[in-house]
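Researcher: Please translate sequence to structure tokens.
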Amino acid sequence: MNILLETNILSFPGLGIGEFEINKTAFSLFGRDVAWYGIIVTLAIISVCAVVYYKAKKTEISTDDILDYFIYCIIFGIIGTRLYYVIFDGIGNYIVSDRGVWGNITGTLYNIVAVWEGGLAIYGGIISVALTIAVVSKIKHISFLKILDMGGHAALLGQAIGRWGNFFNAEAHGGETTVFCRMGIKNSLGVTHYYHPTFLYESLWNITGFLLICLLHKKVRRKYDGQTFLWYVTWYGLGRMFIEGLRTDSLYIGNTGIRVSQLLAFCLFIGGAVTLSVMRFMIIKKNSRAVTADTDVADSVESADGVECSVDNAEVSTDSVGEADIKSGGQDDERGDN
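Model: Translation complete:
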């Protein structure tokens, strides 16, 4: 389980930022500490809701329905992020076994739900939110893929903001490094070590993806439901796949040494890229067939016009012969009169 210091002394010497102290607690309310992490995560959730609400106004989906999605997705999203972390961190770390039956149960449940002591995993939230959207969409008879499109795009902005919660806790960093953007963390012995600020890498990667998808929406017309969500999982998976490899606090699959988030990111990237390529090929093929069908119709019309022209020409020729016969008959009559 994560044990966080109340205050941390950080620095970014490569960026010209010297040592400064940061407290993980923002303020106290009614005797309870309110952590910066919680505030940042709340702002991230609000940003996601704002983007989804803005996009929903351009569709036929009612704001009441969107509000229902918000309520269920926030509740089950938080549950999912915590359960994912607890499962892969090792459920044994949260089980209490020295307080009697009821004490063991309540103590274990407390450890599992104690998000204020650290321990959330974004992939658990993504999975649980996607499942929640699927269920709510089924009940409300709303397109599951349309909601995923709105949620996926918004998630990039929310994740970019949410990563700054790790900054206030001085966590989720990478191994030691000398890169220009290194982050210094002074330990309890007064020694400063410099690490990859992976929270910063992921935040910048996500905000870049959010802006790119905004640009794609303006320049490229979305061709099918689910396309924006595929852009999201492909972009996020690509970045997280590399960034996760730098982190020192990764969750692993048992004792395999395989980072669960890195493996999942790889699968999302490959799955998203392949699906986007297949869909693009199918659309090109469909458009090609449509162009061929239009050409055939045009050729048929052209042929029909040619036949009509031939008939018209034949009628004109017939009329010309008739006129010639009339003129010839008239001349004969004149000769007879003479």
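Researcher: Any highlights?
Model: The chain has nine helices and six strands.
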